[in-house]
Amino acid sequence: MPATALDELYDYDQTYLADILNSVKTIAMVGASADKTKFSYGVLRVLHETGYDMIPVNPNPKVTEIRGIKVYNSLEDIDRPVDMVEVFRPKEELYGITEKAIAIGAKVLWGQIGVYDDDAAKLAEEAGLKVVMNRCPKIELFRPFWKPRLDLAI
Asked: What DSSP designation does 61 have?
């Protein structure tokens, strides 16, 4: 699959990504869904099963629990420290979420695939956060173990 300009723009050193994933323990997922068909549900499930302390964030008052985990309506409602804020919301919302991530003392801002904003990245970096955009932590977590065999016949 050819790389796109967006992939090249948000190309991160694998050590940088691995260091983040090895250092964070608590991840607040903004845009977490209780719908098992949604990508955010699958990512939350894998990260939770891998051992991360997942904090689903969803503003819908009817969503109180996902996979047995308490759901918070906003980042500001979370009652414990957050290492990383992972964003599963439209990129147009990223700047405002970044402001909230800074306010709660997060150390990392991670925009899911398709979620990127250079102004939000600059704001976060100036506040001392590490930033990853247009990447999926579930994919990056397992990337070192995936060795493509492009020489195999189809």
From this structure: T
pLDDT in tens, 79-88: 999 999 999 9
CA distance 46 to 93: 25
- Give one word for 60, left, alpha or beta, with left for phi > 0 and alpha for psi -120 to 50: beta
Do residues 54 and 45 make contact, with C-beta atoms less than 8 angstroms apart?
Answer: no
**Nearest Cα to Cα of residue 88 among 130, 48, 134:** 134
Structurally, at CATH architecture level, domain 5-139 sits in 3-Layer(aba) Sandwich (3.40)
| Domain limits, the chain | 5-139
Residues in CB range of 51: below 8 A, 6 or more apart: none
Closest CA to 69 of 56, 86, 82: 56
Q: pTM here?
A: 0.88
